[in-house]
Write a structure and sequence with these properties.
Layout: H1 2-6, E1 7-9, H2 11-26, H3 33-58, E2 61-67, E3 70-72, E4 77-85, E5 91-97, E6 110-114, E7 119-126, E8 132-136, E9 139-144, E10 150-156, E11 160-165, H4 168-178, H5 182-186, E12 199-205, H6 217-223, E13 227-232, E14 238-244, E15 252-253, E16 256-257, H7 258-275, E17 279-285, E18 289-296, H8 299-311, H9 321-331, E19 337-341, H10 347-363, E20 365-371, H11 374-381, H12 387-412, E21 416-420, H13 425-438
Parallel strand pairs: 3-11, 14-17, 14-19, 19-20, 20-21
Antiparallel strand pairs: 1-10, 2-4, 4-7, 5-6, 5-9, 8-11, 9-10, 12-13, 15-16, 17-18
Amino acid sequence: MPLFKKLYLTDRIFYCLGGIIFLFFLSFLIHPVYYLAVVLLLSCAIILCVDIFILFKTTNMRIQREMASVFSLGDQNKVSLTLENISNLKLFIKIIDEIPYQFDERDFSIPMNISKAQSEIVTYHMSPKIRGEYFFGDIHVFIQTKLGLAVKKETTPAEKSVAVYPSVILMKQQELAALKHPSFTQGDKTNKKIGRSYEFDQIKHYVDGDDTRNINWKATSTLNKLMVNHYEDERSQQIYSIIDKSRVMKMPFNGLTLVDYAINSTLAFSNIVLKKQDKAGLISFSKKVDTTLKADRGGLHLKKIMYSLYKERYDYSEANYEALYSSVRKTISNRSLIFLYTNFDSIYALERNIKVLKMINKYHVLIVVFFENTELDAYSKAPASSVLEIYQKTMAKKNALEKSQIVKELRMHGIHAIKSAPEHLSTKTINKYLELKSSGFL
């Protein structure tokens, strides 16, 4: 029967029955206690029936879930539950929302009480650590009255899927912060460049003073008039973000991997690049080049970048920098600014790939962005209490020293370098870009 599927008994009724059973046992020694036990048993049964009648005849709840259609990776995303008590009784309820299994919470519940004919909004926050599609299930509400002997379960169908994209919240925060940068308020410096631009604008009639090298002979023969190609100065630069998805980027930090931090930073950084009227592009690689998105600009292009980052999958093999160089030479024709997100653990790891980095920097402006191990740095500064800890802290300090040597080594070869903690990655990357942009370096 539907009633029995929705009906549950609380601990209170079992405590009462336990006490009554004890009285029945006691009645073997003290006979008058038997009559007291019978009276209490009948009273408990009557009160239980009354409680069940009230629950199923006079109590009713409405509940609705509201949340964003897209969640941000690594951020606190708000979920709201709107409750409405349409009965004339104060109700004591427990809400169980079927949250996605990726959050790994098996006992998620919200206990509360709600007054008669009242509406309330309950909010909680979820912080996803993996990109992809998450499924929310139904909402279950367990209702009980002041008597508290029985519980009625009401289920509201609320199945919904939500996509977890790279952090849109971080992107908006960085956009607001970048608006305060002098580059946005004072403008950029422009350097006079020798040469000519090859960004096509239109075909027009020839007039005295036009460069005869730009004559469009095909249009001239068609119209029987001299026509020339008109080019405009190319003011926007190509800015590429290259993400290393190899084994060295698997290291976790606050629940996210270094790849996830690089992905979040790339989205926020690309948004600022497009706001500055530059062209943003994307490349990801590990043992081979997986994603290649040519630099372009416009609102739709930001959505393409976001979707490409959303689809990125982990591939923790060794990084193939030779394949990266080959792809860069084929994909990026003009001199561009390239931000390479990677992680070098030692000088030896850098030396294995420095030749490829120098070759990329020969044709483009390369900025290597890598991570510092803040947890290891904090551990190295703590006091040691044993010989083993002294050894461990010495090795931790050696790692921090090598990170600083990597920066010096890259700069010695004319390559820009950014060493950043994972949580400050977006800020440092954007500030470096704005610094280069405002100084007229690009």
